[in-house]
Design brief:
α5 packs antiparallel against α6. β4 and β5 form a beta hairpin. A 5-stranded antiparallel β-sheet has the order 2-1-5-4-3, sandwiched between helices. The radius of gyration is 28 Å and the shape is globular. It is α+β, with helices and mostly antiparallel strands. About 50% of the residues lie in helices and about 20% in strands.
Length: about 425
């Protein structure tokens, strides 16, 4: 396909989130350069971290809608994988796809970071303009001065003024909309009231420092519960406006609605840390949790018996249904007793047990896993039982060499499978 054609497909995918300052030709040239970098990262010839900078380039080109990152992630995980591995074996395809997922996660993180930086940059510009205008105005005319009014009324970010007692003087339409209250209801209310109870302590402390002259500015990010029950995430900066004698005359606050950015970050984190088919934690999240687990630590490594036959007999669509059913059964059996279940690839699942009491507890949990799979599943109108081979390993201390621990539990599982499967084997460390 080539990166040029890949860029065309990427541009098609981004249609609707197009930066108005760029022509279609310019977009394709930009995306072709980024595609070269990302394909190299997926191939493994460049570090995956370059995806972070590639996302920042996209944001700088004014692609700031969540659709831009979600569709770009699909291009990385689908189109680029097909470009690299058009006719490889299943194992080769899976290896490339795994790396593509890591590159896509780095791209998503870079997009979120760049989006935040862009939003805060606009916030800084607006605050500087408002401060400059207010400082040039006479104190008694601060809200009627023409230049300040232009900034105040026309800004797309929220702006409000606060008196020396910490009560709101006036807010613009954007601020009122952000907080979900009529602008006429704002004057006289305290900043702490508007920030919400979660940050009321910080609000009072920061306001006290600002009004006393100990600081000139503070910034806080908070969630605000609106009257309609929705939650708005707000990044608020407040600065003091002083007279010629250095006394604080009033405060100016500039707020940016970061709800979509936070939701996007949450969604991207979830997608990067969960298996798309089953919804379970994926390999990335499991190893992160294992690296910070509370010792002693136990691990159960489970590989399905007979799953290949299901795929061969009824195809991958039915196989996917079986995997989803297996995932829910495993989760339901061990999460109530404190285990974390993850899918780490194919028909392989793994359970992490923190504060594990030893091999007996792992044997009990393994028994729960096997029992969960004992009831037949209905597949293509007929009952099917998919069993499992399980290996376990116990460590008194949190593992410093995760590869060594995984090798031990993997060995235990495969010895079990070689012995006929549908049973348990334990390896001590």
């Amino acid at each position: 396909m080539g990166t040029r054609e890949l860029a065309v497909r990427w541009a098609d995918a981004l249609d609707g989130a197009v930066a108005p300052t760029l022509t279609r030709t310019q977009i394709e040239i930009l995306l072709a350069d980024l595609a070269d970098v990302l394909v190299a990262a997926v191939r493994g010839t460049r570090a995956v971290e370059v995806a972070h900078d590639a996302a920042a380039v996209l944001v700088a080109a004014n692609y700031r809608d969540s659709m831009a990152v979600s569709r770009s992630v699909l291009v990385i995980c689908r189109e680029m994988v097909r470009e690299i591995c058009p006719a490889g074996t299943e194992s080769e395809y899976e290896a490339v796809r795994e790396r593509a997922i890591v590159v896509a996660a780095e791209f998503a993180a870079g997009f979120t970071s760049a989006l935040r930086s862009a939003a805060l940059g606009e916030q800084e510009t607006t605050l500087a303009a408002a401060l400059s205008a207010a400082q040039e105005a006479e104190v008694r005319r601060q809200l009627s001065e023409a230049r300040f009014e232009a900034v105040f009324a026309g800004a797309s970010v929220g702006i409000g003024t606060v008196d020396v007692t910490g009560r709101v003087l006036e807010v613009n339409a954007a601020m009122a909309d952000m907080l979900g209250l009529p602008a006429a209801m704002m004057p006289g209310r305290t900043v702490a009231e508007l920030l919400g109870p979660a940050n009321i302590g910080d609000a009072y402390a920061n306001l006290e420092h600002l009004l006393s002259g100990r600081t000139d500015r503070f910034r806080v990010e908070t969630d605000h519960l609106r009257r309609d029950g929705t939650i708005t995430s707000i990044d608020l900066s407040m600065s003091a406006v002083r007279d010629n004698g250095g006394r604080v005359r009033f405060l100016i606050g500039v707020a940016v609605d970061v709800t979509e950015r936070k939701q996007l970050a949450d969604r991207l984190w979830h997608d990067a840390n969960h298996d798309s088919l089953t919804g379970l934690p994926n390999r990335v999240q499991f190893f992160n949790r294992l690296a910070s687990a509370v010792a002693p630590v136990g691990v159960c490594y489970l590989d399905l018996d007979g799953f290949k036959e299901v795929n061969d007999a009824w195809g991958h669509t039915v196989g996917d249904r079986v995997l989803r059913d297996v995932a829910q059964r495993l989760r339901g059996s061990v999460e109530p007793v404190g285990g974390l279940v993850a899918r780490i690839g194919g028909d392989e699942f793994i359970v992490l047990v923190e504060k594990c009491t030893g091999a007996e507890q792992l044997a009990t949990i393994s028994g729960l896993l096997l029992d969960a799979l004992a009831t037949p599943m209905q597949v293509a109108g007929r009952p099917v039982i998919v069993g499992a081979s399980i290996g376990t390993v116990f460590a008194e201390e949190r593992p410093t060499d995760i590869d060594e621990m995984m090798h031990a539990v993997d060995t235990a599982m495969y010895r079990n499978k070689a012995a006929g499967g549908r049973r348990l084997r334990h390896e001590s460390r």
